[in-house]
Design goal:
- It is a single chain.
- It is built from ten helices and 18 strands.
- It has helices at residues 38-44, 87-90, 132-135, 138-154, 171-182, 198-202, 229-238, 259-264, 277-289, 306-315; strands at residues 2-8, 11-16, 26-35, 55-56, 60-67, 74-77, 80-81, 101-102, 115-119, 123-125, 163-167, 187-191, 208-210, 219-224, 239-247, 268-271, 298-302, 322-326.
- The strands form four sheets. Strands 3, 5, 6, 9, 10, 17 and 18 form a seven-stranded mixed sheet that branches.
- Helix 4 packs across helix 5 and helix 4 (138-154) crosses helix 9.
- The longest helix has 17 residues, at 138-154.
Length: 328
């Protein structure tokens, strides 16, 4: 099979790898669509010790099962493999399983390849009529759905009356805004510094799109999809008293939060990681039902152009919030 392999800092190459084999409850999947995630970019830049070269990255996948219990079905892939028996798994919080594995991190190679093997429990069947490239968005939007759900649960009052801010206009920012809207939010602002993206963001619906310097203040929910000291500082300054900050981004891990203001104003801070299995299933069903809109904000490229796609994302010249690669 053909695979796009991370071989070193800012370096990706197309390699030929042995075809994969499914055994037992595993399924051999022909990967027809796989998105480029921000975590893939962190690895590409050499910033993720969990993803050492050489490694096949990519975890936002969908395709056709060639062999295994779900043979013949189109599926979208939950890339998070948990033990199923620990206290977190039995509580339905599989994302906190302490022995969890995710494809694109060793020992599980990722989905920037023509084939992938996954357990049946990690697959959701995609109905006829749903575009496979849209099905591949289940993973990133599930991150957003999980974050928005936790923020809604922590909020005092109804989400439809809340003033909401999403920091970052990439795929996670877009997914968070769409998730908030699907859950009933009426007032949603997306703050994005790259004006190349503003046209796409403005086409998504009646969201307010602005530069981070123009957001205003008094937000009941702030979802930080960037996760750097600068955005955390901004979040803690614009959140309303009694409001909620939901931290999704993994840009860096130091500084930014105004602890004194958060304490005096009783602000709730929630760190969120991936999603539960139920969140993933709910998100996939939401895509199938069309609650996130047309999902026409992606750009598709062949796997052979993957290295250039990473370089273009890094340069800031990509207007689309998400690039989806097509291995087959």
């Amino acid at each position: 099979m053909k695979a796009l392999v991370y071989v070193g800092q800012k370096s990706l190459e197309i390699h030929e790898r042995d075809d994969l084999v499914a055994r037992g409850d595993d399924n051999l999947i022909r990967v027809d669509a796989v998105g480029i995630c921000g975590s893939d970019m962190h690895a590409y830049l050499g910033h993720d010790d969990r993803r050492p070269a050489p490694l096949i990255l990519g975890h936002e996948a969908a395709g056709l099962v060639l062999a295994g219990p779900m043979a013949g079905k189109n599926v979208t892939v939950n890339p998070l493999v948990s033990c199923g028996t620990c206290r977190y798994c039995t509580q339905g919080r599989e994302n906190l399983c302490q022995t969890r594995q995710i494809i694109s991190m060793l020992p599980r190679e990722g989905a920037f390849a023509q084939q992938l093997v996954m357990p049946t429990a990690n697959l959701v069947e995609v109905p006829d009529g749903v575009a496979i490239e849209h099905a591949a968005l289940a993973e990133p939007i599930a991150v957003c759905w999980h974050a928005a759900r936790l923020g809604r649960e922590a909020l005092f009052g109804d989400l439809k009356d809340a003033k909401c801010l999403v920091q970052g206009g990439g795929a996670i920012g877009v997914g968070s805004a769409l998730s908030l809207r699907a859950m009933g939010a009426k007032d949603v602002t997306i703050a994005e510094p790259n004006k190349v993206r503003h046209g796409v963001l403005n086409s998504l619906g009646d969201f307010r799109v602005c530069d981070p310097s123009d957001v205003g203040e008094g937000f009941d929910i702030v979802i930080d999809c960037v996760g750097i000291s600068h955005t955390r500082k901004a979040a803690s300054s614009v959140v309303a008293a009694g409001g909620v900050i939901v931290h999704v981004g993994l840009g860096d891990s130091v500084e930014g939060i105004d602890i004194r203001r958060m304490t005096l104003q009783e602000v709730t801070f929630i760190g969120t990681y991936t999603y539960t299995a139920q969140d993933f299933c709910d998100t996939a069903q939401g895509i199938f039902d069309g609650i996130f809109g047309s999902l026409d904000w992606i750009e598709e490229r062949p796997l052979d152009d993957g290295a250039q796609a990473f370089a273009d994302i890094l340069s800031g010249t990509v207007a689309a919030p998400k690039i989806v690669l097509r291995p087959n």
